[in-house]
Structure formats: structure tokens, C-alpha cells
Amino acid sequence: MEDVFSLVRDVRDFPKPGIVFKDLTPVFRDPAAFKALIAALAAPFADQRVDAVLGIEARGFILGAAVAVHLGAGFVPARKPGKLPSKTDRESYSLEYGTDALELHSDAFRPGDRVLLVDDVIATGGTARAALALAQRQGADVIASMFALELDFLNGRSLLPTGIPVHSLLHV
User: Which domain does 79 fall in, by range?
Assistant: First the structure.
């Protein structure tokens, strides 16, 4: 994974001054690195039943959809407000540079669905917490949260519900 993560680019002052954004798009562009990243994200769940992967807009769509295909699971997008065409559930959250909200279709999950949350980075944890709250509100059994990168200094995992394992491939 060291070769994969050597491709991650730091973008200073994005999306606002003082933020150092961890850009995984160079990893996505490299076929071998992208394949290795998806395999590593999916590996801990290869022997488990996963009904759906929940991916957070936008890079979580890229990773989550690929992990879902790898695991033979469905994919559910957690979107910004107003982007889904049917009835939705909404959860607001705070992030390191403001506030926002996520939505899921109201029928995205059935009670008991085994769901894996996948996203590129966990920073302050607000976005992941909102996505998990939406899935649990619909009765999903969230089996774990999986991230490519974790910004340890922000302690985002402390905001996530206890009892749901948190996996990160790289700690920064």
C-alpha cells in the first residue's frame, strides 16, 4: 500500500485557507494503484455477507461502488441535499469548515440489511456520522466503516457510533 499512498497529493488551502486537502485522484488515475486500493478496502469483508455499500458523495461514490462490485454487493449513494429524485431522509452535520447535510432515498435500506460504509477520508467524522445515522434510522445493520485515509489529529472516529468497527488503511 505504500506505493498506492505515495500517489496521494496534498492540496493546500482547499476548500478554504488553512485546510490541507488529501487528494486521491492520482490514485484513481493509476490502474494498478486503484485496483490495489479497492482490493485492500474490500479485503476485511471478503468472507462476510455485505448487502450494500454506502458511499458518501463524491469520492466515496468512486471507492464505494468499486468495493460493492468487488464484494458482490449493492451500492447506495449518500448525496448532498436535492440530488436524489425520490423521497429522502436527511441528516445535517458539522465539518471542519462549515455545516452541510446528506440524504438517502427513504427506501435505500430494508431492516436488517448488512451495510458497509466506505469513504476516502475520515477527518472530523461529521459526514460519516451523518451517513451512519441515516442508514441506522432505516434499520440497516452497519457492520463497519472503512476509509482509505484517516486524519488522526482530528479524532473523527470519536464521533462515530460505538459498536461499529472503524477501519482505515492509512493514518496521517
Answer: 48-171
